[in-house]
Amino acid sequence: MAALLVVKNTVTHSAIIAINSETVNKLNAYAAFTNALPDAVIGAALEYIFTADKEFQTYLHSNTDVPQLLAIRKPRGSVVTRRKKKQA
């Protein structure tokens, strides 16, 4: 039997950023408006910007050695993975 939903597994990273109070309020309002988590709103907004900005697309294709300015937090503890069930 086929699954009802197609679930996309993505790797996420945690990072600490500083944003002003007005942006936080708008982020919370947009998350409530779309019935989504703030993390999802941020991710979707960034993907939209990365896709829509043609100058950035040009920059991205011509600069392969981009400095890693955003510090990624390493996960605490062990990461548990689940095996896929075999379909009969």
Could you characterize what this model shows?
By secondary structure, the protein is mostly helical. It has a domain of 40 residues. Helices cover 43% and strands 0% of the residues. It is built from 3 helices and no strands. α1 packs across α2. The chain starts with 20 loop residues before the first helix and ends in a 26-residue tail after the last helix. 0% of the residues are buried. The model has no long low-confidence stretch (mean pLDDT 84).
Order of helices and strands: HHH
Taken as a percent bin, the fraction of beta residues is under 5%
Give the uncertain stretches in residue-range form.
Answer: none
- Count of helical regions: 3
In which range does the helix fraction lie? 40-55%
The biggest beta sheet is recorded as:
none
Distance between the termini: 9 Å
What class would the helix/strand composition place it in? mainly alpha
How many strand elements?
0
The averaged pLDDT comes out at 84
Assembly level: single chain
Radius of gyration: 18 Å
Shape, per Cα inertia axes: extended
Question: Can you summarize this structure?
Answer:
It contains three helices and no strands.
Task: Please describe the topology of this protein.
Blueprint: H1 21-34, H2 38-52, H3 54-62
Helix pairs in contact: 1-2
Quick tags:
88 residues; mainly alpha; 43% helix; 0% strand
